[in-house]
Amino acid sequence: MRTLILLAMLAAPLSAEPGKVAVVTGASSGIGRAVAEEAAARGWRVVLADIEPKGAEEAAADIRKKGGAALVVKADVSSDADRAALLSASTAVFGGVDLLVNNAGYGYLAATERLDSGEAHKMFEVNYWAMVDLSRRALALMKKPRGGTVMNVASVLGLTPGLAESAQYAASKHAVVGWTRSAEREFKRAGVTLKLVCPSGTKTKFFDHATGPDVNAVRDQLGDAWEDFDPAPKVAKDILDGAAKPGLFILPGKARETLPADLVRLLTE
């Protein structure tokens, strides 16, 4: 952990102006990278975490060129040690965490008959258990009097049935939704805001990172719908705009249009 923190400190602009600190996981591409870039544009000091940090390093370099403060941490969120080291690095360099965006995740796509339980467990470690543990660790850093916000990125697939061959992935997102809705009161008592982000289809590298025997089958089910997906920067803006609004749910982009109107009213009123 000491090595990780030292590398992080060397990579960060230590003369950064005092300001709020945002930690974003899965920050090398897609929604995570867009959220980190948008947060930096709004004046946040940003910690970009990813198991493959090349994209995060590119984003961080661009943020620094624009006068922002960015720190890159190579972290496998399925590792307990890396999760602890990530928040320790943010604290060591920037003095703490004010916003945690639990965005890291991927899809294991397999029909039930071809399911590999080991691969499914591995996906749940990233999509669900890492979110729970990082939220728990952030709560300890943010609780009164500091305060802060934890945002857990799920999906509309955590609220509705998923496509065929995507049941395990959808289940991981249902788990994120269920845990976040149930934990909200605990966080509120501690003076920490908890938010649940449920994007609809977003133009990301999801299928580049997906694993399992039925990746192509799920991609084929989408057909031309991919063209109508939301751009990640638009989703990122909606996510950060939603951080200051009341309510647990943030439905960025076309999510409200994707979900049944009655369900949207139930979740947001």
What structural keywords apply?
single chain; 7-stranded parallel beta sheet; 9 strands; alpha/beta; 269 residues; disordered N terminus; Rossmann fold; two-stranded parallel ribbon
What does this structure look like?
- The structure is a single chain.
- The model is unreliable at 1-17 (pLDDT under 50).
- The longest helix has 26 residues, at 117-142.
- The strands form 2 sheets. The protein has a 7-stranded parallel β-sheet with strand order 3-2-1-4-5-6-9, with helices on both faces.
- Helices cover 49% and strands 14% of the residues.
- Strand 2, helix 3 and strand 3 form a beta-alpha-beta unit.
- It has a single domain (2-268), classed as Rossmann fold (3-Layer(aba) Sandwich).
- The chain has 269 residues and is α/β, with parallel strands linked by helices.
In one word, what is the shape? globular
Quickly give the structural class.
alpha/beta
Largest sheet: 7 strands, parallel
User: Whole-number radius of gyration?
Assistant: 18 Å
Query: How many DSSP E strands?
Result: 9
Roughly how much helix do the residues carry, as a percent range?
Answer: 40-55%
End-to-end separation in angstroms reads 44 Å
Strand arrangement within the widest β-sheet reads 3-2-1-4-5-6-9
Estimate nothing, just give the exact number of structural domains. Answer: 1
